[in-house]
Each structure stands twice: as C-alpha cells, then as structure tokens.
Amino acid sequence: xxxxxxxxxxxxxxxxxxxxxxxxxxxxxxxxxxxxxxxxxxxxxxxxxxxxxxxxxxxxxxxxxxxxxxxxxxxxxxxxxxxxxxxxxxxxxxxxxxxxxxxxxxxxxxxxxxxxxxxxxxxxxxxxxxxxxxxxxxxxxxxxxxxxxxxxxxxxxxxxxxxxxxxxxxxxxxxxxxxxxxxxxxxxxxxxxxxxxxxxxxxxxxxxxxxxxxxxxxx
Length: 219
Description:
Helix 1 crosses helix 3. The protein starts with 8 loop residues before the first helix and ends with a helix. The protein is mainly α. A hairpin with a 2-residue loop joins strand 1 (139-145) and strand 2 (148-156). The protein is extended, with a radius of gyration of 25 Å. It has seven helices and three strands; from the N terminus they run ααααββαβαα. A three-stranded antiparallel β-sheet has the order 1-2-3.
C-alpha cells in the first residue's frame, strides 16, 4: 500500500496563488466579453426604432397578410428579441461578406428553381409526405424545465433536400439535421387539443423553448 503525504501549508499557499493568478489573468477577458455583449444589446434599441419606422414599407411587402399593429407590447417584444439576438451573435458568428454574397446567389437561384417547378404558385406541392413512424423508430426521454414536466421524442429524420436545391449538399453535411426531436408537454386526464410550437433562433432546448414560447401560459 502506498502512502501519500499531505501537502504542506507552503504548498497549499502556492497552489492558491497559482489559481488566483489564472483567475486574475482571465478576468479582463471576461469583462471584455460582457462589455461587448452589452454594447451589442444596446444597439437593439436603434434596430427596434428602425422596425417601427419601416413598418409601413414591410406591410406593403407582406400584402395580403395582415400587418401587426404597432403597439407598445409589440415594440417591447421586438426590442427583447433584438437584444437576445445581439447577445447570442458573438462577432465570431457574424457572416463574412463572401458568405452574404453566396447566400444572395443561392436565394436568387432558389427563387428561379421554385418558380420553374411551380412551388411558388402552389407551395403545398413542394412538400412531400414523410414515411409513417413506428414505435421502433422513436426514442423517449423525460425531463423537467422551468417547473414543467416534459417528454422528448427523437427519431431519425427522413427529410432530404432535392439535389437541385441550392445548398443541398451543405445541408446534408450537417449531421444534426438528420435527427428530429419534439418536446411534448401533456395534460393529465381528458384529451386536449394539440398545439405545435416551432422554436426560433438559438432555441431548441426545453428551458429556452418554454421561456420563449410561454409554454406554461399556453399549457
């Protein structure tokens, strides 16, 4: 049997000093990261103002869909979402000019393809019926978030973009796209109508979805 000698008081002090130095060295970087996030969040105010200013222009683009009334509640929600987007999108995730050019080219190519195939005139014809799922296809996991019990259903997605669609090969290269998941919140007792909520940017996790989609209130 080996014998391990306890560290002396001097060794413990040296260990604490080393940890303190590492913390002090990293502190400015943490402060800089927080300051940058707050600075980006402040910019959300100007973006919210532009939303309110340009609302009439976008309303014409959305015709015949109804434009939301410019209430204080709507503007507060816009400001909150802009702030969350600004904080979540660190500078390292900003698209480069070359990526924006590629996306613009792909959008133009997709519009031409969709028009030629008739999908713009009849959007429903673009979608193909997926194969039926069986119980063997599903995996289940339970959990709890924000005081809400949930079940999460996962299965291998059978969706694949058509080869002619712009970006199809890149989409296929993302392994996460090949797995589908649904988080389910059930009622006890009698059956209730189903309500399907589709998460937005930086969501897809129960704790984020339940907050962003106001799941407790809807449930």
